[in-house]
Write a structure and sequence with these properties.
The chain is mainly beta. The protein is 0% helix and 48% strand. It is built from no helices and eleven strands. It has strands spanning 3-7, 10-13, 18-25, 33-39, 46-51, 58-60, 68-73, 78-83, 92-99, 115-116, 120-125. It starts with a strand and ends with a strand.
Length: 126
């Protein structure tokens, strides 16, 4: 059984930082491209960031570029999202996801992700 368990969310003031973690089990983690998505009430699920198999390639949605950093540690079956300079518009449930793509690529299309974590709430107050 594949499990993706995200943690690290919380309530933070605008301008603050949070670090999300996602630990995977039940899969060969180094064979999966990883991504972070978020969704807020009344909005579509939104791509946030993705990282390739080795971590050599990353990609971000425009609204978080320069503020968020995605990283992975294949030895720990983990992917992280460091979020700095948070703004109220970042408020959402954040979920990690795994895409079984054998190439050193980033995947931004949520339909290509096979497994999803349960999500962790991030709330940014103004």
């Amino acid at each position: 059984q594949v499990l993706l368990v995200a943690s690290g969310g919380g309530l933070v003031q605008a301008g603050g930082s949070l670090r999300l973690s996602c630990v995977a089990s039940g899969l060969t983690f180094s064979s999966y491209t990883m991504g972070w998505f978020r969704w807020a009430p009344g909005k579509e699920r939104e791509f946030v960031a993705a990282i390739s198999l080795s971590g050599g390639r990353t990609y971000y949605t425009d609204s978080v570029k320069g503020r968020f950093t995605i990283a992975r540690d294949n030895a720990k079956n983990s992917v992280y999202l460091q979020m700095n300079s948070l703004i109220p518009e970042d408020t959402a449930v954040y979920s990690c996801a795994a895409a079984n793509d054998p190439h050193e690529v980033v995947v931004t299309n949520r339909l290509l992700y096979h497994y999803w974590g349960q999500g962790t709430q991030v709330t940014v107050s103004s």
